[in-house]
Amino acid sequence: MSSSDDAKRPVGINDVAAHAGVSPGTVSNVLNRPERVAESTRERVERAIRELDYVRNSSGRSLRSGRTDSVGMLVLDVTNPFFTQVARGVEDEATEEGLAVVLLNSAEQAQRQRQSLRLLAEQRAAGAVVMPVDSDAADLLWLRKQGVPWVLLDRGDVTEDLACSVSVDNHAGGIAAGRHLINLGHEQVSFLSGPLSMEQCRTRLAGLRAAMAESGLDPDAAVRVIENEQLNAECGEKSVEEVLAGGPRRRPQAVFCANDQLALGLLKGLGGRGLTSPGDLSVVGYDDVDVAALVHPGLTTVAQPKYELGRAAMRLLLSELNDAEHRHERLRFAPELIVRGSTAAYRE
Amino acid sequence: MSSSDDAKRPVGINDVAAHAGVSPGTVSNVLNRPERVAESTRERVERAIRELDYVRNSSGRSLRSGRTDSVGMLVLDVTNPFFTQVARGVEDEATEEGLAVVLLNSAEQAQRQRQSLRLLAEQRAAGAVVMPVDSDAADLLWLRKQGVPWVLLDRGDVTEDLACSVSVDNHAGGIAAGRHLINLGHEQVSFLSGPLSMEQCRTRLAGLRAAMAESGLDPDAAVRVIENEQLNAECGEKSVEEVLAGGPRRRPQAVFCANDQLALGLLKGLGGRGLTSPGDLSVVGYDDVDVAALVHPGLTTVAQPKYELGRAAMRLLLSELNDAEHRHERLRFAPELIVRGSTAAYRE
DNA sequence: AGCATATATTGACACGTTTCAAACCCCCCT
DNA sequence: AGGGGGGTTTGAAACGTGTCAATATATGCT
């Protein structure tokens, strides 16, 4: 009624300028390089901003400047605690730099990964942290050609020197788990794997076999591989039959699982048959998700520095964005075996 | 060397138009209202798009149209499985509609929530699904005034009729847990709570007390409240002392926990003292996160339809965005008690 | 053939911001 | 008095797209 503009257009930089008796360029300077504008006018402009409740329009902003303040983070599965811990690391590091993180979820589908990468290109994201769904780098290289650099996470194998990468030494993790079981006297181990198309699974298995070999055992005879479709608890639970196949005599003495979800599922499956760990079977997981310490018995597992992984990835990305003479780097963390209650010495 | 434009400007709608021998407006039409353009020219334009590897610039796009194709989802904690399940629901529903979801994390800090909301305003997000950190609606109302509508999740109490909301009936959940324990013969129950400033905790407690009252028990005598700083496993484990305080005689017969993380922590704490559930103590959780079914014994818990919650919230948001005569709606789901191994009849 | 109607395409402008060369002001120095 | 030189401020020109009234082309009808 009283106010004349019912269709209240959002207030822009020009309105602020008018209200402060100043040119639009000056307002922009106050926003972006405050040091260049005299204190008195800066205060005047800031007051106008407050009084008009002005909020920046990032579309206009990035249209003109060609860049954005947000980085993408592409994960395989938002519900997997491993990924969310990594995401927290990425986010903390980015926030400190004033960058916003948009979390995208490929759900392990190449199709959705493709869509997400395209979205990042359309939005002219400043950069991205990516956990690719497979080792096909074509889409990733396309994204880089579009001007969006990225850092590879948990997948050192995809690119040679085309980008930075951060990963954990899966071979060493496999060896650590293997040595632990061998020291406990286990000479027959099943490897409960996810899809062997995943490099992580293959390398962890290779580590296990290497540990066997260094102890004079024949990997081919001592290690049995059980492949699953996915790396989740459901698969772990279902595969209990196959793990136990052959009767108590030929039963493996221990199981090394490709990740904790599989291990937890397996433990549940054992419980459902009246079997216990480590009494009937020693079990080792991988990742050290929070719940690994909560179940009873605690899950012996190979810990990855999840949070640090995320931080490091973001740090490399920031270096690529800010440092003129940035050189690609491959960071590799060491895993750590955490011994809990689910493994014990071989008896009988 | 051979190519003349080393500074390769990204290809825009104009380049496509030129390459297809057509006006920019037509290209725009092909992109946005393909039905309005003749098939032959459409094909020509699409070919040009492919040949030039054109990718839309969403800055220009949304600068002109004043709107975006992305919606925000603000959660309290990315690492909490309850939230990630909800996020998956939101995401699935949004993706079907061609909207991108940016996941923002307030980490339960009002400050970070404020930043996130401002970001949504600056980016002119189409809308948002929000789990507010407290019941102060000021910032939310500001966001709505800026033209970004939102749906409230898991917090029916914050707004009256100012927005849609989706939640689960916490009072009913408390009653269900209470009745279950009473039926098992437990007449002394501790409520292991998070911060009582959270409405969810208070209402679940109220439900428990109501169940007591309807059975002729005096809630004040039968229910003891143990408040924790946070809703995580660490707090749950630490509070085992307080739960057991008073020795075996006065020990509560059962514990109802405000969420599963607390319950899982408590179970671990019990195990650490050589006590078991349900042998020494019946335990009920809340949420039914995935691991609740994996631990041994399985955790009896009040399940919330997490995924559906997310989908429903997004659906309401879409209705608000698309339907001209949208009316705000308050959706309330019913929780469901899942009985597993951690509760048993009172003995002795 | 001539006209009305439907269908396709065009072209210029506006969206809100950043950028940058140019203009301005004020003070100090010669 | 005249210049020179900081530090400040200005104004206009992009950035890439969507919109819409206007124009061009095709179609159907008398």
Which CATH first-tier class of the largest domain in chain A would you pick? Alpha Beta
Give a short account of the largest sheet of chain A: 6 strands, parallel
| Classification by helices and strands of chain A | alpha/beta
Which strand order does the major sheet of chain A show? 2-1-3-4-5-11
What overall form of chain A do the CA principal axes indicate?
elongated
CATH architecture of the largest domain in chain A: 3-Layer(aba) Sandwich
Tell me the CATH superfamily of the largest domain in chain A.
Answer: Response regulator
> pLDDT average of chain A, as an integer?
92
Portion of residues within helices of chain A: 40-55%
Measured between the Cα atoms of the first and last residue of chain A, the distance is: 90 Å
Largest interface: A-B, 47 and 47 residues
Discrete helix count of chain A: 15
* CATH-derived topology of the largest domain in chain A: Rossmann fold
Structural write-up:
2 copies of one chain form a homodimer. Chain A has 15 helices and 12 strands. Chain A is α/β, with parallel strands linked by helices and 348 residues long. In chain A, the strands form 2 sheets. Chain A has a 6-stranded parallel β-sheet with strand order 2-1-3-4-5-11, sandwiched between helices. Chain A has a 6-stranded mixed β-sheet with strand order 7-6-8-9-10-12, sandwiched between helices. In chain A, strand 8, helix 14 and strand 9 form a beta-alpha-beta unit. In chain A, helix 1 packs across helix 2, helix 5 runs parallel beside helix 15 and helix 8 packs across helix 9. The longest helix of chain A is centred in the C-terminal third of the chain and has 17 residues. The N terminus of chain A is likely disordered. The interface between A and B is large, with 47 and 47 residues. Chain A binds a DNA duplex (30 and 30 nucleotides) through helix 2 and helix 4.
